[in-house]
Amino acid sequence: MSLETVVILAAGEGTRMKSSTPKVLHSIAGRTLVGHVLNAVDALAAKQVRVVVGAGRAEVEAHLAEIAPHAVTVFQEKRGGTGHATQLALDGLKATGTILILAGDTPMLTSDSLSQLLDAHHAGGFTASVLTAEHPDPTGYGRIIRGDDQSLVRIVEDRDADDVQREIIEVNSGVYAFDAAKLTAAIGTLKADNSQGELYLTDVIEILRNEGGTIAPVLIDDFIEILGVNDRVQLAESAALLRDRINEDLMRSGVTIVDPLSTWVDATATVESDVILMPGTAITGKTSVATGAVIGPRTTLHDCTVARGARVLESQCTDSIIGESVNVGPYTFLRPGTKLLKGSKAGAYVEMKNATLGEGSKVPHLSYVGDAVIGEGSNIGAATIFVNYDGVEKHYTVVGDHVRIGSDSMLVAPVTIGDGAYTAAGSVITEDVPAGAIGVGRAKQRNVIGWVLRKRPGTKSAEAASRHSSDEQKG
Ligand code: UD1
Ligand code: CA
Q: Per the confidence metrics, is the pTM higher than 0.90?
């Protein structure tokens, strides 16, 4: 039997989230809730994926077009229950093979468990198989009613359960494998005779059984996998559990995580072995960190590429490339388009954007480098500003190889500093400096002798100055 179709139910209002964002578009570990579900489903190589959308349809569809363009959406205009959503999803579907149905709000599910369900379903030749788990606090979940032969007799929703049924801790995950033909035949017979007046997909189990079908509960060990997100408390709980799962996988693969509770690595990021992650670090988006790098403490890397042996300390970096053995931080802000080549350094209180720093070049302290390319072996003195913005447009600065920019230089773009050139400290450089020249762009200093005694008599400064000979005062 082949997996023909996957249906993801994601049309619910998500009322309990109290959000203007549709529930399934809330994110944990760098993916939306529905993104996690789609990711788990991806490995199954189903012929078709259908997603039932309703609340926030336009937003959800736009997101799906981006992350899962192969998925077909089905519109459920008004909430009619999981059974109603399934009816709509099955409409016009070829009723062959196996169909997997799951909810869009269970981000912890793994491909392994979905495969386990499908394998058991196919091996037993069942009409339907339901993924279940024993939950220490089953409140809110449908309960699994097993027969004497351990087969699944019925699923009773929490609000429709009696006191005895409520004691059952085996719960419905909301993940089902069905014989598509039998499901399609039965789905039309659902009735809304329950406390919510909705069509429950769970009721189809009893219907199939009464028609002589065989139904298997497939119990998995780890109830965490089936946790649904219905409110922000559960969102935070799932985020923390996913963080723990990701961190554990990383540590087992050879990453040192000094403080796992304060280290957040997105599911979309990669961290190689022998990386050290210090406390308070977030590795998010499509960031990759190569072996030997040390990141943190208190560092966020978003969509960054970090090469071997780099060191990033107390910094915020987005969409930047941090080369081999590069040093960043502390308190460095790397904005999109920053590229630090091998052995270079962006030091304390340095901000960079759309700029390339050549091999071995250094911006050690307190500088802004925007819209620039700097060659190799150059040094940018403390408090240098790349003046890239004239109030209307951005301009570009080119700095050559082995340049020495004096401290507190203003490089007013567009401007080019040639290879081996210097600028004098405190210069405002508005014209190109040719290779090997020194650009001096500052007023010549003059000393007004005796000024303090004349203009600030009686002050501590005057008192200090008067201790010197009057000759010195007069020059
Ligand atoms: C459902 C199950 C319950 C199970 C639990 C697991 C039913 C009746 N109950 O309850 O047995 O333990 O999931 O998490 O199925 N949806 C639609 N259209 C609708 C209604 C819901 O698309 O008209 C979608 C929701 O967006 C959600 C999923 O179906 O992704 C489940 O709906 P939800 O209301 O969260 O069901 P639960 O009460 O959690
Ligand atoms: Ca739910």
A: yes
Across the chain, what does the average pLDDT equal?
96
* Contact (Cβ atoms closer than 8 angstroms) between residue 60 and residue 76: no
Sign of CA dihedral 112, 116, 117, 118: positive
* 365 has catalytic annotation: yes
Is residue 230 packed enough to be buried (19+ CB in 10 Å), middle (13-18) or exposed (0-12)?
middle
Inter-axis angle of helices 82-90 and 203-210, nearest 10: 70
Inter-CA distances, 406 with 79, 371, 442, Å: 67, 19, 12
Compute the distance from residue 228 Cα to the ligand 2 centre, in Å: 5
Best CA proximity match to 372, nearest among 317, 416, 336: 416
Calculated CA dihedral for residues 73, 74, 80, 81, nearest 10 degrees: -50
277-306: average pLDDT: 98
441 lines ligand 1 (CB under 6 A): no
Two structure tokens written together for 180: 């598509």
Ligand 1 lined by 200 (C-beta under 6 Å) = yes
Of 218, 49, 40, 206, give the one whose Cα is nearest residue 118.
218
Q: pLDDT, tens digit, for every residue of 156-179?
A: 999 999 999 999 999 999 999 999
E strand or H helix that includes residue 451? helix 451-455
